[in-house]
Write a structure and sequence with these properties.
Layout: H1 7-63, H2 69-76, E1 82-89, H3 91-97, H4 109-115, E2 120-125, E3 130-139, H5 149-153, E4 160-169, H6 171-224, H7 238-306
Antiparallel strand pairs: 1-4, 2-3, 3-4
Helix pairs in contact: 1-2, 1-6
């Protein structure tokens, strides 16, 4: 047999399911949105960091202090989130000015893509968490970020002189984001629980308790067969409308019962009248029979005397 659930259970279950879907959607959307904002901010920050580092190198080249570029690199790498900032030198640049510092001699597969003129943005993982890597190729141009590269490097327009690589850790930002999402999710769950409890209380007072009173009053009418009992109508809503309709139905039944009782009394009175008349008729018939018997006896006696 299929299990039947109460309306209260089904309604509260539907509300809980709806609230849960909304909560999950809100948390997931908030997480994705904040993660996207975090990555957008990181991209802009790292891009600005790479440009600032390149501008610093240009200034050093102009002032003749390029050999002190490791000092600039150390300052740019001072924030804990900045894991690495370095120059990737092209073969053309090495041929003109030598191999450069030790950090500038490293080449990885992503570095080779940048030396082919491709801007590289890459996410990877280390022991701490996510790492965002930006490798911006330096293209020889008469006006590359406000600098004429062709005059100093004896290069052609469009040649790749090297690249600026920045490795930026997102671990701390991701941890803060995760903490914010946990707090936000906890607050939303708390709000959900409070709203669900308030909804349950309101439904209990406005619907379920009144339906229970409606059932109890109908059951009382059924048990006592008392049509004088009426339902209380306290609100002008659907349940109040049902209560008024039930009261009208009971009133009509009560009126019909009164009519039936009145008619029954009239029938009873008529029956008593008929019974009374029948008794009178019976007495008269019996009296008439007695008279007839007496006349017959007298006639018989007179006939006997005449003989």
């Amino acid at each position: 047999m299929k299990k039947q659930y109460s309306i209260r259970f089904l309604l509260l279950a539907a509300l809980a399911a709806a609230f849960t879907v909304i909560l999950v959607f809100t948390v997931v959307y908030s997480a994705q949105s904040q993660r996207a904002h975090l990555e957008e901010y990181s991209h802009k920050y790292v891009d600005g960091l790479a440009k600032s580092f390149f501008d610093g190198l240009n200034t050093m080249m102009v002032t003749g202090t390029i050999n002190n570029r490791d000092v600039l690199r150390e300052k740019v790498m001072a924030p804990e989130d900045v894991l690495d900032v370095r120059v990737i030198r092209s073969d053309q640049l090495n041929a003109m000015y030598g191999a450069g510092n030790a950090a500038e001699q490293r080449r990885e597969p992503l570095d080779m893509k940048a030396l082919d003129g491709e801007r590289v943005e890459h996410y990877s993982e280390n022991d701490a968490g996510r790492v965002y890597t930006l490798i911006e190729p330096v293209i020889a141009s008469e006006n590359y970020q406000g600098v004429n590269c062709l005059g100093c490097h004896q290069a052609q327009e469009g040649d790749v002189l090297g690249a600026i690589r920045v490795d930026y850790s997102l671990a701390e930002s991701d941890a803060r984001l995760q903490q914010q999402l946990m707090v936000s999710g906890g607050i939303q769950i708390l709000i959900f629980v409070v709203i669900f409890i308030l909804t349950t209380v309101v439904l209990g007072r406005l619907v379920f308790s009144r339906l229970r009173r409606l059932h109890d009053r109908m059951d009382e009418i059924s048990r006592n067969s008392d049509l004088s009992i009426e339902l209380d109508v306290t609100r002008n809503d659907e349940i109040g409308s049902v209560s008024r309709a039930f009261n009208r139905m009971v009133a009509k039944i009560r009126a019909s019962m009164h009519t039936v009782m009145d008619n029954a009394e009239q029938v009873e009175a008529a029956a008593r009248t008929i019974a009374g008349k029948a008794e009178t008729t019976e007495r008269e018939v019996l009296a008439q029979k007695d008279n007839t018997d007496q006349v017959a006896s007298a006639t018989t006696e007179m006939a006997a005397s005449a003989v």
